Amino acid sequence: MPAKKTAYHHGNLKAALVDLAERQLEAVGFENLTMQSLTDGVGVQPSAAYRHFRNREFLLRTLAKRSFDRWHEEIKTIIEQSQPRQRVDAFLRFFLRSAIDRPQMFRLMFTSEYGRDSRSIEGMVSFLALEKAIAQLSPEHDEETVRTCLLSIWATLHGAALLLIEGRLQRFYVGHMDTDVLIEHIIATHLQLPGNSGTVARRSSGAVP
User: How many secondary structure helices (H) and strands (E) does the chain include?
Assistant: First the structure.
């Protein structure tokens, strides 16, 4: 017979719950994540968890915010370590690779209401960073043209990411490309800068001017 849970203290219980929630999220999706499974996992009574998260929705918003903050740090590194053209290329690859590596977290961030929490706005620096990089590559274009290009790229990224996550780009459509090659193909084929006949990205074997 399992031991009765009586512990109300678990060191840093909040951090333990969030870490476990991230792991469970990738296994079951945010729709099926429950507070009961988390408290069972860390061995505390539910009332202990509710001291830190007043409900399941608050926990999911916390997870989304935490992930957006990580994105913010990654994008800061991309900005600091690259020139505009390489910056655009690196950002697009980071976006698609993040979706593939952590698909359920990506869905939480970008397809659920929990990713729209006002506390996550800082994480959307990714959108503004991409816009700035595009503008620097196309200084001759006005703001409206740059924003139109940005929205087209953003929509393509989201669509490609979700198709990859859902497994809808079957071999019937993409031949025998592995995931990395497919990502390069998506970037090089579909994501173009305004007024530029070249593409945003180049194959890894080619130099980027």
Answer: 10, 0
Residue 207: per-residue pLDDT: 31
Predicted confidence (pLDDT) per residue in 46-81, tens digit: 888 888 988 999 999 999 989 988 888 888 888 888
Q: What is the pTM of this model?
A: 0.78
Joined tokens for residue 82 = 């690259």
Residues 6+ apart with CB under 8 A from 151: none
Amino acid at 27: A
Angle, alpha carbons 54-117-130 (nearest 5°): 150
Contacts 24+ apart (CB under 8 A), 53-58: 53/14, 53/17, 57/114
Contact of 108 with 25, CB cutoff 8 Å: yes
CA angle (24 as vertex; 27, 97 as ends), nearest 5: 60
User: Which secondary structure element, helix H or strand E, spans residue 199, and what is its range?
Assistant: none
pLDDT digits (tens, 9 = 90+) for 174-194: 777 788 888 888 888 766 655
Among residues 201, 169, 173, the alpha carbon closest in space to that of 185 is found at: 201
Mean of pLDDT over the chain: 79
- Residue 46, classed as helix, strand or coil, is helix
